[in-house]
Amino acid sequence: MPSFSLLLLVLATVPPSKDAAPMPSPTPAMQAPGVEDKPTQVGGSAQESEVPIQSAEEILRDLANEPSEDAETTAEEEATEESTELEEMRALEGATLDPGARPNAEVLQSLRRLGVANPLRLRMLDALEEPTFREDEETGELPLMTDLSNFDVSRVQARYDIPVEMQPLVAQYIQFFQGPGRKWFSKWVSRSTRYLPVMQPILEAHGLPRDTVYLAMIESGFSPTAYSWAHASGPWQFISSTGRQYGLRQDFWVDERRDPIKATYAAARYLKDLYAELGHWYLAWAGYNTGSGRVRRLMDRLGTNDFWAISSPAEKGLALETRHYVPKLIAAALIAKHPAAFGFSEREFVYEQPLSFDEVKLTEATDLDVIARSAGVSVTQILELNPELRRWCTPPSSAKNPYVLRLPKDTAQKFTENFARLSPKERLTFRVHRVKRGDTLSQIALTYGTAPEAILQMNQLKSVRTLRLNAELVIPVPAVRGGGKAASGESALARKVAQARRSGVSVLRPEDEVPAGTPRGPVATGPIKTETINGRKRVTYGVQSGDSLWAIAQRFQVNVDDIRKWNNLTVRASKKALKVGSVLYVWPDNAPKQVVERAGTVIAQRAPAGNAGRPGSVHELAAGESLWSVAQRYGVSVEDIKRWNNIKDTTRLPTGLRLVVKAP
After folding, report:
1. Which helix (H) or strand (E) holds 456?
2. What is the pLDDT of residues 619-653, one digit of tens each?
């Protein structure tokens, strides 16, 4: 079978029909061996080209006249929508399919869509020398499947390099994709044309079937930004630990699980390992979903490598999701290659163009807005090609270890030349700040000589009152000249602030900020304030160490049940409400003598309760009481009560316990 280079040569020499989708330039992954676009290195030493292009100053003037696109909000909303849709589809899937069902099992999409009589299709078939592709010239397209029970899957098996079988669950998933899951499946097929051309060659190079790519379809719908409840991310839905195991970088700057090419390399290695361990692609797919250990233990226990046997509902060990995983993949592959046969019309698909890009090497952390303007594209396009980026800039890099960034096709030269012409004041450099106790956004901005709005924009935050302790923030600062003196960065910084404000970023006044590490809730204990509400006095009380509802009730001469009622507390919730620093509302009939009000603030004198020290030497422990409250009541110490009553363990004192509260 000829290489892709021959196929591309055919594509280049034959114009497509007017009904055919335009064929984009080949991606790096589609090039012939030994032929590649070398990334262009970009750094401080870049040379200016003699080719006349738009100057940096002209770009900046254009930017001043046209508001920049709010790419950050758009990308974030799209990622959230895709992840939500994926979870919604999975929920509907579980509700639609019969979980009790007992399982009993290329024409390239572009060739099929060109049509049987299209001359380009015939030339491609000749170049590929693939007789199976001509099968439909004699038999025509697969007829519409109206009765899945009579569908002879052997008619299409030769067109797949993965095993396909028509089992009851496969049929159920086909019906699900035809019905309740139709809108999602249509979106998946539409998106697949963007990623199949780059993913399939990677799988094939690692010795995997090309049709393994449909695992990414059922995992994420080919969405780089999909994120699951199990914290799996990217088109192949790697969890963090497995992603790191297979070389996917995840840090403050990037999450390579979201990169469709890097993640495909990792998935290919992982699936190859699973196949080597388990011996069958069905088992490898199941292991991808649940882990190889679980599958191997079931194989050993049942003495079989038949997926349908170990996934039977009668056998315990595989979760429902894993039992359905293989049938779901088979169903997706069957429909994706033959949508018309399963009732899908071409009008339902909006095919995306294959992934195509240039690459440049960056030797320093660079603002995405600067990159986009230099390349003459939008920030949205940059983010779409580099979904691994987690910040509004590229990671720190150097000439020795550059960061390879993807740009839209045929824009690398323009970017390199425009970027080299930018003066230091038109650039920003970046620092990483770890939030410490007492930090506020305004203080951090002042320390680094930057603007709070710029910090929020770079960290994809809309607003913040309190910074999270130990969180890391990327701080944009004006570029530094060679001598070490800060350059005049008003232009770049002012532009970043304006961009932030246009995208809805807002900052609080410094006096409204709460320093990082400030405890939530009041730090004061005892009565905090009194106020009059509808003619009645209410005391806001901060719980102190050793407090009980009974002790608080005695202090304010009220009932325990009243305190529960005023604070909407059940008996069980009372313990949680008595954490030090938590707040209770008390409505005393008369202001307690120990409470003195000064300018709206209540000052409490720590004196024993009014009935402390009353006659009597034995006290019966009531519900909610503690040794501390009893000691306060009788004007003695807790140690005295423990010694007089020979108490060693104070954690379990039963209600009704009679305590000696006076020295013998």
Report:
1. helix 452-458
2. 877 765 677 667 767 777 777 788 888 887 766 67
